[in-house]
Write a structure and sequence with these properties.
Elements lengths: L2 E7 L3 H16 L6 E8 L3 H11 L3 E3 L2 H6 L5 E4 L6 H10 L3 E4 L7 H15 L5 E3 L7 H11 L6 E9 L16 H4 L3 H4 L1 H12 L2 E9 L4 E3 L19 E3 L5 E8 L4 E7 L8 E8 L2 E6 L5 E6 L10 E4 L20 H18 L7 H20 L3 E2 L3
Parallel strand pairs: 1-2, 1-4, 2-3, 4-5, 5-6, 7-12
Antiparallel strand pairs: 7-13, 8-11, 8-17, 9-10, 11-12, 13-14, 14-15, 15-16
Helix pairs in contact: 1-10, 4-5, 5-11, 9-11
Length: about 400
Amino acid sequence: MENINIGVIGAGFMGKAHVVGYSNTPKLFWPAPAMPVLKTVCDIVPEIAEDAKVRFGFEKSATDWRDVIADPEINAVSICTPNDSHAEIAIAALKAGKHVLCEKPLSSSLEDTMAMADAAREAAAKGVIHMTAYQYRRIPAIALAKRFIDEGKLGDILNVRCTYLQSWSADPSSPLSWRFQKDIAGAGTLGDIATHVTDIATYLAGDIDEVTGLLRTYIKERPVQEGGVDLLGTVKLDDNAKKAPVDVDDEVSFLVKFASGAIGSIEATRNAWGRNNHITIELHGTKGTVAFNYERLNELQVCFADDPDHFRGFKTVYTGPAHEHGDVTWNIPGMNIGYGELKTIEIFDFVKAITTGEQPSTNFEVALRVEQVTAAVARSAESGQWTKVAA
């Protein structure tokens, strides 16, 4: 079995998630397409890098991502850093012939995303794989919804309704991490979580042609965070802490028109008390409806028009071994998977793509299309008009 030497750049929350995926791929998908080897972990904070090396079982640690890219032993890299550094790292890695898995959003600006897509096209011609970490479209229940659509069981798609609701930044005492700074993040909720459901919407219903949207910032300033670790609202600072302005959105809401003629809506916020990781998808077709809620991750609600009148209504399908990626689920439907297994599915797809040479479904071209939608929403929020998504 082939070994693939991995470098993970960024040892925070997402770095840990990628490590879980690499470690679990051969445990849950066997025989694995290749064996991931945790070669080098990199973080700009030396103590964090060294701690991650020991904790996660890497052979080496580094504090400069350039050392990872320059290492001839490294075959593939995961980029798990703040958004503004994605482009520089990814382009350098692609030019060096490294396979790249980059966290979303692909970058902090559409210009940088386009540059990354250009570099990916050039690298792909030489057999280099590029992939964006849109893991939620890989949920078995979402894959099942896609299967129903592709098989025509829902008929023509009429409407797609998506939400992504969280509460971790609803507290004004949550510190001003990089996610609240436009020069680093590029956008707030729009880029951070709305991109996930935008990707799912296009995966299920095709390209979005036109949007009209609203952006809102509710908490205008936050206490300045000490240190560079993003703890996603789990730390609160007192009222005496120094404060600085927030210059990104807390909430986005937009209507969409699909190229197919379907319409829909996408809403995302990080200020919804009581909502933790509340992703919902509801898709209506001429022959039926599917509905999904991430907080019930292993279930898909389905209703078909050709059911008898006395039997028509939503039914629950529990995903398991009979469904896509059933290898990584457990032996009985309803035994359930969680975020760790989902990241393993994502990493499995990346490793498999490296071994087959076939670009994965969430390659940089797909991510560019999502960022084009995001940019159109931002323009629409400024103009108050329906706005075309750039071709």
